[in-house]
Amino acid sequence: MDFRYLLARGYPRTGALTLVGNRYGLDRTGRQLLHRGVFALEAAAARRAKLRRLAEVAGQTLGVDGHNVLITLECARRGIPLVAADDGVIRDVGEISRAFRPSDGTRELLALIADYLAANRAGELHIFYDAPMSRSGELARCTWEIFTARGLKVKAATATVPEKELAGFPGPVCTSDTGLIDQATLVVDLAGEIIRGRLQARILSLTDPPGLSGS
């Protein structure tokens, strides 16, 4: 793949994406698939080394990037394409973050998350939602209600910049955000696990570079 080839040779990511996108006449979704799914070999390998299954960190305190996890699952529920990225994480390409609003389906997704966490004996949960986003306070309260009803120990709150709250988190972090993954010690692709195991979703798989077979 040309984009991966250019990244491996040190080309700036934005410029390489523009070059490849223009050459092949890719639409916005096609460019998003590359942007969200393809990474330089070393960066992808470093992130994969941090990935753990939820069951592998049972009982440990988890930091959760609330909107990140929820929106990825929302995209899966709506049938919006997802990409299995080079770094082992499933990401959405729907670009719905700014327009995201809690809906009737949100409670169902929260229940799905809570059930999965409980089944895998998750430890204490520190969940942060993006305060500037619509009805984030209501979302935090709803999360607390649904999770505690399943016996989970949870602190759900809003934060102006959730990434700052999670950047120095002492335990594993549940997110697909590349910046957080790069800063974290351990990472759980919570949304990806649930999508693979419990949802019928369209996942596009891009060919992995040599030595980076899927986990």
Describe this structure in words.
- This protein is 47% helix and 13% strand.
- By secondary structure, it is an alpha/beta fold.
- The protein has two domains: 1-38, no CATH class; 51-205, Rossmann fold, CATH 3.40.50.
- The strands form two sheets. Strands 5-4-1-6-7 form a five-stranded parallel beta sheet. A three-stranded mixed beta sheet has the order 3-2-8, with helices on both faces.
- Strand 4 (125-130), helix 7 (136-148) and strand 5 form a beta-alpha-beta unit.
- Helix 1 (2-8) packs antiparallel against helix 2 (13-24), helix 2 (13-24) packs antiparallel against helix 3 (28-37) and helix 6 packs across helix 7.
- The radius of gyration is 17 Å and the shape is globular.
- The two termini are 21 Å apart.
- Residues 208-215 have low confidence and may be disordered.
Give a concise summary.
By secondary structure, this protein is an alpha/beta fold.
List keywords for this structure.
215 residues, alpha/beta, Rossmann fold, 2 domains, five-stranded parallel β-sheet, 8 strands, disordered C terminus
